Amino acid sequence: MSHRPTALIADDEPLLRKSLARMLAQAWPELEVVAQARNGREAVERFEALHPDICFLDVHMPGLSGVEAARTIGRRAHLVFVTAYDQYAVQAFAHGALDYLVKPVEPERLADTVARLQERLRIAGPVPDIDALLEQLATQLQKKAGIAPLRWIRASVGQALRLIPVDEIDFLRSDEKYTRIAWRGDAGKPGEALIRTPLKDLMAQLDGEQFVQVHRSVVVNLRSIGHVTRGDNETAHIHLKGRDEVLPVSRTYLHHFRQM
Questions:
Q1: Which CATH number belongs to the domain containing residue 231 in this structure?
Q2: Measuring CA to CA, which residue among 226, 216, 229 is closest to residue 170?
Q3: Residue 109 located in a structural domain
Q4: DSSP H helical segments within 103-159, as ranges?
Q5: 0.70 cut: is pTM over it?
Q6: Does residue 232 sit in the same domain as residue 116?
Q7: 129 touches 114 (CB < 8 A)
Q8: Distance CA 37, CA 69 (A)
Q9: Using only C-alpha atoms, what is the Rg of the chain?
């Protein structure tokens, strides 16, 4: 490469970010760490602004995980996962498409990673297609969390307490201090309710293969989508089956619909 290589470090622990930056300065003096991020959403924002060559992403981060951030960044950078659990990415790493560092990061392992990255940058070849591998990682991540997917949500509808089957939910939307639940009630009739559980807490309990976040305030049931239309500035809009609502898809989550 003719220009000085650049990198981004994303980790929700400030001390770990600083530690990795310090170790990288010793192992690879030519590398310039141009940004640090506290979570996956910040990582994507910093990447879009600065386009670093390499992204070091912690697997576990609040909001948007390192895996989800990686799916958004895609083939536009070389990716390195930083994790306390190396089993999350065994399949991907075995293919050599992705690299990883296990916490606490050891200088010898970092040196090996740096050498591989330097070689990839030197040959200036295309970044491998990793979409399928990242999809596997996202699924593994949820399973390893040991949380059984939520099956019912309790909500007050008028004077009644309803047990809403999760499979019947079309979407969930953050509404100030509440979460709005939109589902298909009796005979497929649309119903709505507000619950006090924050959207981010519900998201952690939903089946990641069925429900995906498409906006900072919206989670949608993939089975409820009729079609998706592209918008301006790398956004999109979701049109639901049997509903008039049109849900926004922000750039951060557009990777769910790349096949359009």
A1: 2.40.50.1020
A2: 226
A3: yes
A4: 107-123, 131-144
A5: no
A6: no
A7: no
A8: 11
A9: 20
| CATH number of the domain enclosing 99 | 3.40.50.2300
Residue from 81, 85, 86, 50 nearest 68 by CA = 81
Tokens encoding 177: 């201090």
Tell me how far apart the alpha carbons of residues 8 and 6 are, in angstroms, rounded to a whole number: 7
| pLDDT tens digits in sequence order for the chain, 260 residues long | 458 999 999 999 999 999 999 999 999 999 999 999 999 989 999 999 999 999 999 988 877 888 888 888 888 999 999 987 655 555 555 555 578 888 889 999 999 999 999 998 998 776 766 776 776 676 666 665 555 678 899 887 777 788 899 999 999 999 878 899 999 877 778 888 889 888 877 876 788 778 888 888 999 999 999 999 988 877 899 999 989 999 999 887 887 776 55
Q: How far apart are CA 104 and CA 127, in angstroms?
A: 27
Q: For residue 32, which phi and psi values (nearest 5 degrees)?
A: -110, 115
Give the closest residue to 243 by CA, choosing from 179, 172, 167, 170.
170
- 120-126, long-range: CB < 8 A, 24+ apart: 120/78, 121/1, 121/5, 121/53, 121/78, 122/1, 124/1, 126/75
Burial 138-155 (b: 16+ CB within 10 A, else e): bebbbeeeeeeeeeebeb
pLDDT of residue 1: 45
Phi/psi of residue 96, nearest 5 degrees: 80, 5
What number of other Cβ atoms are within 10 A of residue 217's Cβ? 16
